[in-house]
Amino acid sequence: MSGSQQxxxxxxxxxxxxxxxxxxxxxxxxxxxxxxxHHQQQQQQHYESSFRQSSKSSVKQQSSVTxxxxxxxxxxxxxxxxxxxxxxxxxxLPKRAKRTYLAMDTDKEVIxxxxxxxxxxxxxxxxxxxxxxxxxxxxxxxxxxxNLFVREARESMEVRVMKTTRTTRxxxxxxxxxxxxxxDEWSEFRKKMxxxxxxxxxxxxxxxxxxxxxxxxxxxxxCTVAGWPKPRIAWYKNNVLIDAKAHPExxxxxxxxxxxxxxxxxxxxxxxxxxxxSALNVKGESSFVxxxxxxxxxxxxxxxxxxxxxxxxxxxxxxxxxxxILDKFEVxxxxxxxxxxxxxxxxxxxxVKKYQPDVVWYKNSVPLKPSKWVHTHWSGERATLTLxxxxxxxxxxxxxxxxxxxxxxxxxxxVFVRDADVELEGVPVAPLDxxxxxxxxxxxxxxWKQPAVEGSSSILxxxxxxxxxxxxxxxxxxxxxxxxxxxxVTGLVEGRTYIFRVRALNKQGVSRPSRISDPVVAMDPxxxxxxxxxxxxxxxGMIKFTEEDPTVGIVPGEATDVVVTEATKSYVxxxxxxxxxxxxxxxxxxxxxxxxxTDAWQRVNTGMPVKSPRxxxxxxxxxxxxxxxxxxxxxxxxxxxxxxxGDITVGDKLDLPSAPGTPVPVRNTDTSVTVFWEASTxxxxxxxxxxxxxxxxxxxxxxxxxxPIKQTRFVSHGLITGANYVFRVKAVNAAGYSQxxxxxxxxxxxxxxxxxxxxSDVTMLEAVKDYMMLTWSPPANNGGADVRGYFVDYRTVKDxxxxxxxxxxxxxxxxxxxxxENLKENVFYQFQVRAMNMAGVSKASLATGGLExxxxxxxxxxxxxxxxxLEVRDTSLVILWEPPTxxxxxxxxxxxxxxxxxxxxxxxxxxxxxxxxxTKHMKVTGLKPGTSYxxxxxxxxxxxxxxxxxxxxxxxxxxxxxxxxxxxxxxxxGVISMVFECSEMKEGCEFVWSKNYQEMxxxxxxxxxxxxxxxxxxxxxxxxxxxxTFSCMVTNMEGFSSSYTLTEEGLMRLxxxxxxxxxxxxxxxxxxxxxxxxxGRVRFWTQVEKCTADCKVxxxxxxxIITQGKKYTMNFDKSTGIIEMFMDSLEVTDEGTFTFNLVDxxxxxxxxxxxxxxxxxxxxxxxxxxxxxxxxxxGPHFVEYLDFTVTSECDVLLKCKIGNIKAETEITWSKDCxxxxxxxxxxxxIERQDCELTFNIGKISKHDAGxxxxxxxxxxxxxxxxFNLTDAGYQAVMNELFRVIANSSTxxxxxxxxHGIILYSMVKYHHEDMRVGWLxxxxxxxxxxxxxSGFTGEQLWLKINEPTEKDKGKYTMDIFDGKDGLKRVFDxxxxxxxxxxxxxxxxxxxxxxxxxxxxxVGGLPDVVAIQEGKSLNLTGNVxxxxxxxxxxxxxxxxxxxxxxxxxxxxxxxxxxITIDAVSTVDSGKYALVVKNKYGTEAGEFTVSVYNPEEEExxxxxxx
Length: 1503
Description:
Radius of gyration: 60 Å
Number of helices: 13
Distance between the termini: 189 Å
Shape: extended
């Protein structure tokens, strides 16, 4: 094509584009009107928050003027602004055009790119909330993607501008003419080939697949994408764009022929992530996610200290950091509710100031974040992880990763969480992993995982509880338990936060609740997304809002896309999309249903419409088909019904998984087993697998994991070493458990076999001209299997130059020594040794130094070899050795054993014995527990003592845990055997017996029987030939050995025991005895100490075997050893001998009971009486017959107990055959309380004697009870009364009087017939005037008048108590005598003084009235010894005799006073005062003298 034609074609093309541009302008006004209406609707939808949109979708709504179109149909125009800037504008877009990814404002100015949202391919609408939350996070990726595309577009634009400026207008003019024809053809072609019909959004044809790789490997992700225009592919790691050009050593991205790949080289642990492949063109975007999991192989051997670690040079600090993890945490076990800590010591070398490594903890390769359940701590040296209040959710593989600038180091171990003890036996354990999904305004879906243990019966279902955050009230969400591990909870309150828990139910009860879920808010998902997410892209423009009149009275439109998202036997969940037309207010929904085939629609939620576009329907008939539809409503009305869902059958869509394949267990360690199995072939939505184990022979299955795992490989820890286990596995999904798989083959728990360690201590024992004798020590680690042999390598050494290694022996050596032959004399050689077991050949030992091959001239023997220790205990051990290979000039005739403490130097060696030892073994005693010792042996011949052997040790003197000693057993057949047990026995280990520490060649004496962990050496014919020391050791189990010395005395004792066992006798706990039972039945019984289930009994009477029948009933309880025989009664013919003959295997036993003569007749009478008593008790009867009792108050009661009484039973009392009636005085003494009758006699006397009777009578029978209260009966009552009185007496007390001393005791009651006697110094004394005894009221006393020293001593009061008498003793001596006698003397003196003191005894009046002028004469009687002195006083003034007053005292008894011619002056208070040495007394009187005339005058005045 010429240049002019090209110019014409371009001109025609330009004209055509102008025409298209004008058409676009004509349609612009109509387009803008549609835009404003559409923009208003979308803003209204945004404010209602009815759609589930993320924050990115909000930006998309606000920029809703964006349309899609082909880039070829956009006309670029330029416009100059006021500032002179040129702004690129887009031509108007047709209405039918789809939006592009350019965002424009209302003025049609480009303000940025709209970043597309991830749209996952999810089933129907399940997981809408999760999808929105994921898209919020993934939006960040598209910001980077947009920047990438903008940069490339800008570069291409600049290129096109440069081309345009180089095209001259002259050339364009010439070409337009030439290309006019071509332009017309091109226009026709464009009409046929519409770009909108050819372009389509990207689509993944082949999707990238997730992979799991080992650390250090390379992984490659592939995908194939179709789309037009050709989409651009971007790769993201955890939502971060991967820049392969910036990290070519790590990533390689290729795109060839729509085949796209991402290669990740040298995978590390941190490469575990989610990788997104995103394809984008102008028509849209598609993406797909693939997960890469990088694992470390945990079962390999630990790296040695010199092995290369993943560390490198750190340019930042100028050093290479080396990380060492010590004190590593091991596999841990915890119970629910406990607190568990994991920790390691971390050493970073070299130490850089202020530098700390990055310490990260992982669970199942997921980093752990601190929470109330997880606490992490880094002290600078030790990393600690603390799991607070363990739950089964915490079970998993925990990894400590220490990151430095030079690399990283890790350590991992599994943590098992056992279920807590159940409160009720048989109930299931708690479910786990409770989560919330699809939360809406009033609806949330709760899911959980089934527990590993269902209890004693299958789980019937689950209860879901909810609790509002901030309260402690749990409400049950479902009345009927659900079996599906997924449940929709409705009825939530919008805006409130809830937590959930789940409980399992079986026939035995309800489990403990699970751990609570994370809190969830009942709110619209779009609101939640806006709260959680920030802006999805940087904002480059301005959003303009225009206030418009709100839409009033708009009835919402129809809901769309009504689908059933979940359908089970218990419920059906509906989901739909909100209507587009709704108004400004919110929309709620009514749900309707009808049975398929009918038109009877029924509204489900008639009471309250729901707010969320989700609804769960319960109580549907299983197996029936239903149609469902939705109506929208607001305050303006109810919309039309949506399109129905179609026929939906109620039933579980998810079936139970199929059983997994048979597990294959593989040995792992001493306490763990690795189990593999094939995955379930028919399973959907697998939750995981539960592995169970059972020890062979127990039939008890225990869970290996309490949290389901999805892998088909699991390491079961915590098993018993040496035990046999079988395994089974079951799958679980939301529908429930599968059937358990077939049981695996049994596996023994022990470490897997590995190659042995290196031999050590290769030394030369002897050298001759052409050979050398070598020896070495076996490897410390045999790899779990016996060392089967050794290989010796050699090489020559000449002038420091080493030759090549050559094998000396092609067949393995069975001993740890070797004769290296065919050597050259005076040549130096080096040797190394390798050990071999069934797993392979070990690494070579350290090479010896250069050894010269030349003949020795030594005369003493060489060094002993093969030193080893057996029977290591706290204070002793046994050393064994082999003789030296070189004996010297004479045979070896003995050995010396030296020892020292391991920490001592060479001077610490000391001899263990003085005399030479002729044997090749020796027991060393007197060691200190816990101390390490080193031993060596020196051989001796006639020439002397040779050099010491290589040292053995250090050996710690301590008994290894689990070590047992040999014990001797004699079985039931009398067989004598020695037994040695080893509970830690491993596979491949064997018991080896020896006598006197030498191999037993004579097998006729002993028979060896090996069982699981036990070896028995049976003596075939024990005799004196068997005396000696027998020892047994376990191969490959260093330290497990023991010995037993059989002496002649011990042998004799064992032979005696053997004889007793060969001819055994069944031992009886009790010989045969007889008991009388109710109704007069007779029981013959005995009990044996022990018996087996085969024990048999033969019942014999008078040498005749009897069997069970009407007369005899037999019973033999072998669990208790009780043998019984019952007879209803004894007859005359039953007199004789009863025998039980027992046979238990070869043991026999016999026991007999003889019943003859008087003994038989007495028992027969007792049997008949018991029979009669039983008959009597069928009617009213006396449970206890009439008897008496004396109360503490000394009242006598007659009482009895009655039984089988009815209301109509007559009860009658009588005394001396005279009935006591209700009106009698004695009737008041009768009382009845329940079934007890009493007759209260009170204080008894002879008047109360008589015969008392009680009668019981009704239609069933009668009974009588009598008590004879006369003679012997009366005396018995009195004796009991005396006993009570005697026991009530107090201890003897003493009191003094003026007459003497009184000893007394108080009693509660005294009866005249009670005898009381007094003893002085244990001798009776008769009553006299000086010593008298008696009683006063309740006081019993002994009076001692005028006591003397002879009255001192022990006094005993003997009170008759009806039997022997009760004695009360008082020792009247010492201080008691002194105090009593002193008080007596004081009182006696006081009495004498009182009796002899001076006193006026009479004769004097109190008042004397006398007329004036008369004479007064008064005489008073006086007493006193001695005679008292007498004086008179007037008004307390002493009177003396004179003419007026005459005082006299005559005969020592009479004192008189005479007053002549008294006058008023003589009136006053007079007193007669007498006095002697014992006292003074005054007899007072008053004298009143009056004048009659004065008295009369006074009276006249008164009148």
